[in-house]
Amino acid sequence: MSLRYVMLELSGVCVRNHACPLCLPRDLKTNQHMDLVRLTRLVDEMRDMGVQNVTLAGFGEPMNHPDFEDIRDMLMHDFNVTITCRPMDLMMVWPIPRANVSVDSVFDARTLVETVVQADRPALPAKLVPHIVLAGEAAERIDTILPTLWTWEKEWEKISIATPVALCQDPKHREAVRKATRDHRRDWTRVKTLIHALGIARDRIALADTLWRTDACQWPETGVMINARFDLLPCCNLPATTPLGNVRDKTLQEAYDNEWWRHFREHWKEDPRCKACPDIGNTGDSK
Q1: Which of 42, 99, 162, 215 could cysteine-pair with 208, CB 3.0–4.6 Å?
Q2: 3-class SS of residue 204
Q3: Cβ neighbourhood burial of 163 (10 Å; 0-12, 13-18, 19+)
Q4: C-alpha 258, offset from chain centre
């Protein structure tokens, strides 16, 4: 198995104080910036290992890094780069060509529309491809938000929608996951009815409907997340209290080939943390 995808948490610093519903438990947040010297070497190691795609995301704001522009240009030289950003930052992500815009609240949705349609703002760059991700309050109030966003559908590549089950990544909230699971089919019936009523082509909407599948996740086999402390995590949805390695003092190849990672890649489908992941859906009463 070869590494093809890396998510980099350039900065764990968040202006919202990690208040978004999809964020990690507080004790797993980094609240720091990636060291530029080590990151520069890491980029060379990623290229040597054949990494193709890089997403700038994590649990802070990538653009908070003081050297963001230099890092962006360095990564774009060798990789296909995507960034996850807030609606108010959408105008600043170019020349990164792809943006996952996280819309977690009604305020976010309103800000996104205003960012695109305000007359005194320049239009989005023609080659910028925003992918709108509705979650949290925005997903729960989809009946009002989606029609408004779709008025400017030509601006979006795709809109992804997550039902409330995606709010429950903290293991302490397992009962909330189970409750959301029971409501899952009802939620999706409502969403799909709305999509049909708006006349939206099915390929323009991505429903986070992996709850009933156990084979949807490809992270363990081809991807890895590296946080601002240079910890290696299996993915952004798995808040591992014990990272499966660290690349601050080791090369990426050494860390990725260690015994922990090899064992995880071979047995991740039996790992209790993966079984409890809302995106895979083996929460105990999902069938």
Answers
A1: 162
A2: helix
A3: buried
A4: 26
pLDDT in tens, 169-218: 444 444 544 555 555 555 667 677 777 787 777 677 766 544 334 445 66
* Look-up of token digits 């290229």: 47
In this prediction, residues 237-245 reach a mean pLDDT of 65
Question: 270-286, pLDDT tens digit by residue?
Answer: 877 676 665 554 333 33
**Residues 232, 274, 48: CA angle, nearest 5 degrees:** 30
Number of Cβ atoms within 10 Å of the Cβ of 238 = 23
Please give the angle made by the CA atoms of 249, 4 and 32, to the nearest 5 degrees.
40
160: tokens are 């992804």
- What is the rounded CA–CA span in Å between residue 179 and residue 164? 10
Confidence of residue 159 (pLDDT cuts 50, 70, 90): confident
HSE value, Cβ hemisphere, 13 Å, CA-based, for 224 = 27
Residue 120 DSSP class: T
Residues forming beta bridges with residue 101, ordered by sequence position: 85, 132
Choice between 81 and 245, residue whose per-residue pLDDT is larger: 81
Compute the Cα dihedral for 109, 226, 16, 75 and give only its sign.
negative
For residue 21, give the amino acid letter: P
pLDDT of residue 55: 93
Nearest-angstrom CA–CA distance, 236 and 225 = 6
